[in-house]
Amino acid sequence: MATRNLNTICSFKEPPTSVRALLLTDLQQLKTIGNSHKNYVDA
What we know:
- The protein has three helices and no strands.
- The protein is mostly helical.
- The protein is elongated, with a radius of gyration of 12 Å.
- Helices cover 79% and strands 0% of the residues.
């Protein structure tokens, strides 16, 4: 899900604030996932 959102944001020159907020939320989720699945994140 996070990767798909990143690809969508990359298609915008200037992402709306709401999209930026969603991206920040995804990054926080990725950090949490990384703490419990480091091997998956490193792959």
